[in-house]
Specification:
By secondary structure, this protein is mainly beta. The protein is built from two helices and ten strands, in the order H-E-E-E-E-E-E-E-H-E-E-E. The strands form two sheets. Strands 1, 2, 3, 5, 7, 8, 9 and 10 form an eight-stranded antiparallel sheet that branches. A two-stranded antiparallel sheet has the order 4-6. A hairpin with a 5-residue loop joins strand 2 and strand 3. The radius of gyration is 16 Å and the shape is globular. Bound molecules: copper (II) ion and zinc ion. The site of copper (II) ion has 7 residues, from strand 5 and strand 8.
């Protein structure tokens, strides 16, 4: 019985070991959210995701899927192209990349998802990036799943216990008040 509650109790008791605070691209600046990574004692990671203000899909009355990956490089500057390709240490096809994650299910822009991944470890993912794309992942097209533009990005960093919701300063082009 206890076993069945193991992950949920871990989530309620523990602080995440790593965290990625997401920011939207210039086209979708309202997207915000956080991805928390809980390293498991033996191996593997729990990935807990909460995101808001994703764009509407084709039909705004139904849920919308968005491709969701860990990308090679932890650089969310500009249009997020510096994040590179899906994290793929074993040089295998999509969607067998270590960085391939289940697509997000957006409900009127809101996502809540927890995933168990037995393959990833903390050292593998630190200083890489989490990326959300404009399209669903088709799990077929190489090497990207035809997932389209990168609409949100966050660098995976060690959780220092005081994550700021807005660590980015993108005000370079805005006048000072
Ligand atoms: Cu991606
Ligand atoms: Zn992939």
């Amino acid at each position: 019985m206890e076993q069945k509650n193991y992950f949920l109790s871990l989530l309620s008791d523990a602080e995440p070991d790593a965290i990625a605070v997401l920011k939207g691209s210039s086209l979708y600046p309202d997207i915000n959210g956080v991805v928390k990574f809980f390293a498991l004692p033996e191996s593997g990671i729990l990935i807990a995701t909460e995101i808001s203000d994703l764009p509407d899909g084709a039909n705004e009355d139904t849920p919308t899927f968005f491709a969701f990956h860990i990308h090679e490089t932890g650089n969310c500057s500009g249009d997020f192209s510096a994040t590179g390709v899906h994290y793929n240490p074993d040089n295998v096809p999509h969607p067998e990349h270590a960085g391939d994650l289940p697509p997000l299910l957006s409900n009127d822009g809101y996502v809540w998802m927890i995933v168990y991944d037995s393959f990833l470890t903390l050292p593998m993912i630190l200083n890489r990036s989490v990326v959300i794309h404009q399209n669903p992942d088709d799990f077929t097209t190489q090497p990207t799943g035809n997932s389209g533009e990168k609409i949100a990005c966050g660098v995976i960093t060690v959780n220092n216990g005081t994550p700021s919701p807005y660590p980015y300063d993108d005000d370079d082009d805005e006048p000072e008040d």
